[in-house]
Amino acid sequence: MSQTIAVIRGDGIGPEIMDATLEVLDRMKLGFDYDFVEAGLGAYEACGELLPAKTLEAISRHRVALKSPLTTPVGEGFSSINVELRKHFDLYANVRPAISFPNTKSRYSGIDIITVRENTEGAYIGLGQQLSEDGEVASLTQQITRHGSERIVRYAFEMARKQGRKKVTVVHKANILKSTSGLFLRTARLVAADFPDIECNEMIVDNTCMQLVMRPEQFDVIVTTNLFGDIVSDLCAGLVGGLGLAPGANIGKDAAIFEAVHGSAPDIAGQGIANPCALLLGAAQMLGHLGKEEDARRLRRAIVSTMEARDRLTPDLGGTGNTRSFGEAISERVNG
């Protein structure tokens, strides 16, 4: 039985890395059909909407989407299309793996950390943003709920158990933000008690950032609130070579969107030199979500072996290849 995926080709380098990714998926003979829909700057230029109803309906119908980076025009529409998608579909869990790959510019090796970030609450979503009439005072509301905290922490522990991971680190700022971060931490402690087989430790967010730089090997799964998760997950990407190797999954009860977490990079758009790995790794997350774990593993193995061989790598990885040739090199290994 075939599976239809809603595909957003994106802006800037988005179409280039999506084409390379779909070529690899097609080579894997997974039986996927694609429903191509628009969002972002391309959609705005075509129909005057950043996030057309047709796109939302397609994601709702297929329940899974693969998305390239989007550009939100300055001064138009939503503050962030990604935030709007998360809100619309209640994609509460943002899952960001950071795994070491061969032949990168990283200062570390052997990194294998997953950041599980609450995706719908907290300061990041900009609830109640306002600026005083004189322009001197800006404010917003940071809102954390017990429900939101409970479900993201439970997601992290259940994921850890399923993947055979041993430790979950709850990252917070409850020493200062005693109401919001305090509620998150107290809720996390209650959830952790349901998982006695998994070690749980707590760490203040600023110390977490320092420890990630000094001794990243101590971390396994990190779970935290929205804004802290945004910062920590990018820090973890820096440990393994940058955002070009950073995928992201946005998971909800009724839909899931998988993506490259980097930007649309308009400065190199059309040059054919963008690294497609982040989106390919997002596609691997999608395969796991769809129950195709072995296919996800063989896709990751093909990426690793291509990087080990330094075969047609893009310039950011020290190669002389291009987006298409890098994708072709991975395609040639994916069924091996």
Model description:
One of its GO terms (molecular function) is isocitrate dehydrogenase (NAD+) activity. It contains eleven helices and twelve strands. 40% of the residues lie in helices and 18% in strands. Strand 6 (130-131) and strand 7 form a beta hairpin. The mean pLDDT is 95. It folds into two domains: 1-98 and 242-336, Isopropylmalate Dehydrogenase, CATH 3.40.718.10; 112-239, Isopropylmalate Dehydrogenase (3-Layer(aba) Sandwich), CATH 3.40.718.10. By secondary structure, the protein is of the alpha/beta class. It has helices spanning 14-27, 41-47, 53-62, 81-89, 146-163, 180-192, 205-214, 226-239, 277-289, 293-308, 323-333, and strands at 3-8, 32-37, 64-67, 93-99, 112-118, 130-131, 138-139, 167-172, 199-204, 221-224, 247-251, 256-260.
Overall mean pLDDT: 95
Order of helices and strands: EHEHHEHEEEEHEHEHEHEEHHH
Q: Report the principal-axis shape.
A: globular
Number of domains: 2
Q: What fraction strand?
A: 15-25%
Q: How widely separated are the two ends?
A: 24 Å
CATH superfamily of the largest domain: Isopropylmalate Dehydrogenase
Q: How are the strands ordered across the major sheet?
A: 2-1-3-12-11-4-5-10-8-9
Assign a percent range to the helix content: 40-55%
**Major beta-sheet overview:** 10 strands, mixed
Estimated structural class:
alpha/beta
Q: At CATH's second level, what is the architecture of the largest domain?
A: 3-Layer(aba) Sandwich
Instruction: Enter the CATH topology name of the largest domain.
Output: Isopropylmalate Dehydrogenase
Look at the structure and give the CATH class of the largest domain: Alpha Beta
The gyration radius over C-alpha positions equals 20 Å
- How many separate helices? 11
Total number of β-strand segments? 12
